[in-house]
Amino acid sequence: MTQQGRFITLEGGEGVGKSTNLSFVRDYLHSRGIRVTTTREPGGTPVAERIRALLLANDEQEPLDDLAELLLIFAGRAQHLARVIRPALARGEWVVSDRFTDATFAYQGSARGIAPERIAMLEQFVQQGLAPDLTLWLDMPVSYAADRLAARGGERDRFERERGDFFERVRQGYRARAEQAPERMVAVDASQSLEQVQRDIAQRLDQQLASWN
Ligand code: Z5A
């Protein structure tokens, strides 16, 4: 019988290096003979990517309602789980995702102000107990992100245009999640050089692989 795969997520505020380190985690697991599917949220399937486009679009004519935003995120997640995440895990592959439900608690919960109980209700309804086995929370002061994103260039999406203390509240939301689940969710200091961040990630993965084995 095929062994069920493991589910690893990368989380954190904008520009902390999730996409950059997703490929590092994939290559690291490959080097240990593990088959890996990488994916992202919002998105991960063609339909869920169309929902992502709706979520990120700057529509001046019709601002997206916070509750509609939350439901769109979970609609995309349902599709992503059904089409990509559950099938890959069932094939015995490991899934590494750039963001998952911790982001919903941080952005829609802590930053937008939706009650965490409501998000937890949708989490249970949509995921039916499926949750990450390990979450690497890339954490750094919010002010650092501006420099990294300016260096990268490109147009700002609907989230990146948020102002005030929105991203501080996102960071607090992640901190609260990490405090609630310290075994699963580990902080990595993302303000360090990329080499040091990746050494820390590799060390954490080594520990985790040893304990799972
Ligand atoms: N969202 C939500 O509200 N609710 C949800 O449930 C979910 C998502 C799942 C899109 O996500 C938006 O969706 C997101 C929250 C919302 N909006 N925001 N903000 P996304 O993941 O696509 O968006 P993002 O967080 O803005 O991703 P990003 O800008 O691509 O950031 P990143 O992936 O964390 O960073 P990166 O692209 O890997 O790195 C940024 C730059 O920094 C790049 O030039 C790198 O070369 C550089 N970099 C990376 N690491 C380092 C180090 N250590 N030193 C120096 N430079 C570095």
UniProtKB/TrEMBL annotation:
Pfam families: Thymidylate_kin (PF02223). It comes from the Bacteria. Its EC number is 2.7.4.9. One of its GO terms (molecular function) is ATP binding. Gene3D superfamilies: P-loop containing nucleotide triphosphate hydrolases (3.40.50.300). One of its GO terms (cellular component) is cytosol. It catalyses: dTMP + ATP = dTDP + ADP. InterPro entries: P-loop_NTPase (IPR027417), Thymidylate_kin-like_dom (IPR039430), Thymidylate_kinase (IPR018094). One of its GO terms (biological process) is dTDP biosynthetic process. Keywords: ATP-binding, Kinase, Nucleotide biosynthesis, Nucleotide-binding, Transferase. ATP binds at residues 12-19. Phosphorylation of dTMP to form dTDP in both de novo and salvage pathways of dTTP synthesis. PANTHER family: THYMIDYLATE KINASE (PTHR10344), UMP-CMP KINASE 2, MITOCHONDRIAL (PTHR10344:SF4). Belongs to the thymidylate kinase family. This is Thymidylate kinase. It comes from Kushneria marisflavi.
